[in-house]
Amino acid sequence: MARQLKVFRTHLGFHDLIVAAPSKKAALEAWGASPNLFSQGFAAETTEPKLVEAALKKPGVVLKRQFGSTGEFREDGADLQIPKASPAEAAARLARERKKEREAAEEAEREEKAKAATARAERQADEARERAELAAARAAEAREKSEAAERRREEKAAASAEQAAKAELRAELQSLTEQRKAELRDIERREEALAKERRQIEQSFELRIHALRKKLDRA
Questions:
Q1: Is residue 55 part of a domain?
Q2: Spatial CB neighbours of 60, under 8 Å, sequence gap ≥ 6
Q3: Is residue 110 part of a domain?
């Protein structure tokens, strides 16, 4: 599908030039002009009906007329003539041309400012994204450190609980051991007392039996 044609206008030397082209670049190529012609404000797109109609009749063909004249644009241009215009008309025409050039320059400046603003916004967005990524990384690092510290606290608490449990078991074992020793000592004391009592009883009975036997022997 062919690109839509636009009509571009400039003036080079003693001629006004128009051409119907799909882009500024194509217009510059047709004119054989400097790439900066549009950015410097010396060329612009035109929507004047007569110029648009004339250019679209011959797409891609450069049409000319004497600079400052109001005649028709032609492919071969026109013979240069001294323009027959009053000082007021010349001044008005010059003012119009300067206004167009100024407007073109202002438009170019606006475009440059818009590009700069877009670049600045993109840069700020990139910086904001980098800051967000850095903040997320720092948050993740802080979270990992917090989780590691929590794990260490839990491990320390578990170790302390284990040590406490072992200490309690050792204390209970020590208590049982001491209780065992005490009860065994008590049993030993009772056994010694019973043995002594047994010896005393045995001796008592032995003495009584011996005395009775002596009586029996004398009788």
A1: yes
A2: 19, 20, 21, 26, 30
A3: no
28-66 pLDDT per residue, tens: 999 998 888 898 889 999 999 999 999 999 999 999 999
The DSSP H or E segment spanning 6 is strand 6-12
Q: Lay out the sheet containing 43-45: strands in order across.
A: 43-45, 6-12, 15-21, 63-66
Assess if residue 178 is contained within a domain: no
Instruction: Please give the DSSP secondary-structure letter assigned to residue 71.
Output: S
State how far the Cα of 98 lies from the Cα of 84, in Å rounded to an integer: 20
DSSP state of 83: -
Start-to-end Cα distance in the chain:
165
Instruction: Provide the β-strand partners of residue 9.
Output: 18, 44
What token pair was written down for 26?
């194509």
The domain tally of the chain equals 1
Any domain includes 70: yes
Number of Cα atoms under 13 Å in the Cβ half of residue 204: 6
Q: Which one, of 84, 100, 101, 86, lies nearest residue 48 by Cα?
A: 100
Q: Which tens digit of pLDDT belongs to each residue from 156-186?
A: 877 777 887 788 888 888 888 888 888 888 8
Residue span of the structural domain in which 27 resides: 1-81
What is the identity of the amino acid at 94?
A: L
